[in-house]
Amino acid sequence: MILDFLKERFGIEEGVFEGFKFVKLGDDVWIMSEDVPQKLHGINRVGLRFARGTSRNPKITTAVLQIFGKFATKNIIYIDEEQLKDYIMGKDVEVGEIEGVERGQVIVKFKEDVIGSGLYDGRVIKNQIPKARRIL
Questions:
Q1: Which of 30, 62, 64, 96 is the most exposed place for a label (fewest CB within 10 A)?
Q2: What's this model's pTM, rounded to 2 decimal places?
Q3: Is residue 136 over pLDDT 80?
């Protein structure tokens, strides 16, 4: 399940999501308040896309990480101001090897702010900021 992935990958405990429910639509997972009725007449989507793909390594969305990433305890990479400028423009950022950070999806932070996610290969963070959110 998606919560097992979050705990294993980012150290985000399941309790953080109390009061929310998850709905699978196609290959995506959506999150919404528990109070949202199961069926709403005339509405085909409610909530926030939580993840794309439900396989072993789903891609957690930028919006979700910006909301819940503050609860993460691992696989976080902090970037400096110069790297931030490149990252929000959609560029990949070289960070070198970081002890304790696993290859794969990581949370990218500047100071205490979650910028989004990236794919870390042990040297570079491959940018995953959606094009619509980039600053050119």
A1: 96
A2: 0.88
A3: no
For the chain, the distance separating the N- and C-terminal CA atoms, rounded to the nearest angstrom, is 37
Helix (H) or strand (E) holding 117: strand 113-120
Domain residue ranges in the chain: 2-71, 76-133
- Coil, helix or strand for 63? helix
Q: Can you name the CATH fold of 76-133?
A: 2.30.130
Give the pair of three-digit tokens for residue 96: 């070198």
Alpha helices in the chain (DSSP H): 2-10, 62-68, 81-88
Report the share of the chain in percent with pLDDT over 90.
71
Residue range 53-81: average pLDDT?
92
